[in-house]
Amino acid sequence: xxxxxxxxxxxxxxxxxxxxxxxxxxxxxxxxxxxxxxxxxxxxxxxxxxxxxxxxxxxxxxxxxxxxxxxxxxxxxxxxxxxxxxxxxxxxxxxxxxxxxxxxxxxxxxxxxxxxxxxxxxxxxxxxxxxxxxxxxxxxxxxxxxxxxxxxxxxxxxxxxxxxxxxxxxxxxxxxxxxxxxxxxxxxxxxxxxxxxxxxxxxxxxxxxxxxxxxxxxxxxxxxxxxxxxxxxxxxxxxxxxxxxxxxxxxxxxxxxxxxxxxxxxxxxxxxxxxxxxxxxxxxxxxxxxxxxxxxxxxxxxxxxxxxxxxxxxxxxxxxxxxxxxxxxxxxxxxxxxxxx
Length: 341
Ligand SMILES: O=P(O)(O)OC[C@H]1O[C@](O)(COP(=O)(O)O)[C@@H](O)[C@@H]1O
Ligand SMILES: [Mg+2]
Ligand SMILES: [Mg+2]
Prior knowledge:
Fructose-1,6-Bisphosphatase, Chain A, domain 1, fructose 1,6-bisphosphate 1-phosphatase activity, carbohydrate metabolism, 7 helices
């Protein structure tokens, strides 16, 4: 039987054989993976570890923080502060960037994360996760500032997530396809369990929070109405629906068996482009999805082409099986054309 391939060996091969990553980036990814293992331990303890429930505080976006949001954020900050060639970090749970102190020469990477995605699922024992994105610090002549982070997603050096579900699975791209690693709890290492992940171009499964239906824009209503009409409608096939309400779990399903995920703009908060965060959620997931042959747009344009103007910027998200994402994007473009005409 072939020897299992650990995350470390996979990264060493990406570095040595394929020249895709530097040893500094390899180290950084290993530190993030180690932090995810520690978060997985807290998640698994649940009520025994007193990690469930609210922390009684709010984050910069005005959302109530769960204890596990804060614990996961601290674990990631602590692990990466000394661990891996970083200039600074940014997190969904922190108001502003965290500059890595006193390092000479200054680290060349920027790390962004949603430390705990799917917070509403923590207390009910449903899959949650950590999402991360790595950028390069473009200008190394001066100190680091928030401005350094405002790069489009296409400039990501690496991205991934770790889903804490029935298995703990780390999913990673360094721009050379998507690989999945399952945590072997007996040995404590992430083992390569899937490589060259590929999303089918067509699907019969969509993911959207249907309770927001009355607030959607017409192109989203049109797309979902057609799915719901099934065999008898214009699509000529029946669709299934799934909504975990943890983006990591919904994206993991799509990377595993295809599907389309929509979190569109809606009328509840009309001044916000969407609910999900561009830098911590949409960009890393878009990178993974594109690397697996899928597509990711905000209904108008490729997510990874958007140049952010603020760290905590929000965005509408449509991602997954290519033909479905192209269809719902086309509906948005057609609706704009009608408005303009
Ligand atoms: O409860 P809703 O509105 O359906 O939102 C679910 C979405 O919110 C999120 O939970 C937001 O993530 P956080 O838990 O990191 O705030 C996404 O993971 C998910 O897709
Ligand atoms: Mg999230
Ligand atoms: Mg979160």
